[in-house]
Amino acid sequence: MRKRIALAFGAIVLILVNVAIVQREQLRTHGQVALLELAPVDPRSLMQGDYMMLRFALDREIDEGAIAPDGKLVLQRDAQGVARFVRVDDGAPLKPDEMLLRYRVRKGRLKLATNAFFFQEGTADTYSGARYGEFRVDGKGDALLTGLRDENLAALQGRASP
Predict the structure, then answer these.
(1) Which of 123, 129, 125, 132 is nearest to 55 (CA)?
(2) Which of 86, 100, 83 is closest to 138 using CA atoms?
(3) Res 153: pLDDT
(4) For 15, left (φ over 0), alpha (ψ -120 to 50), or beta?
(5) DSSP calls for 71-113
(6) pLDDT higher than 90, residue 157
(7) What global pTM score does this model have?
(8) What CA–CA distance (Å, rounded) separates 59 from 135?
(9) Consecutive H or E run containing 33
(10) What pLDDT, on a 0 to 100 scale, did the predictor assign at position 102?
């Protein structure tokens, strides 16, 4: 009996994990591209490997103390896909060039989809010029960081030094 319960529990966990993976892949494939301006910080962690801790220019426009701990921002994308903060979502209908982006406030800091971008060891120089985070965003405001871009909006792809 215990063995059956353990197997059933294991199967449920595997199903839930696979559903989450499929949802992320759908977001990555079908989400709208939104480029958010970065304010990057230290690109190195000895414990976790090479990564860039991310902050966003949006942080300067939003008073974290004046908004709910969890919610959605309304962003407006320009013709190049660069998204700018418009307002905190109040349920009003979105304009055609607007989109939602889910946020959280933790320890007094605004957190969007992620606060770090991990990259292969030896490729830090490639990403030091990052100025935008490339996100895929769905209609509910869920976002996935899919890459970094430079000041000309060109995708950055690291290659390890020989």
Answers:
(1) 132
(2) 100
(3) 93
(4) alpha
(5) EEEEEEE-TT-BEEEEEE--SPPPPTTEEEEEEEEETTEEE-S
(6) no
(7) 0.77
(8) 17
(9) strand 32-37
(10) 93
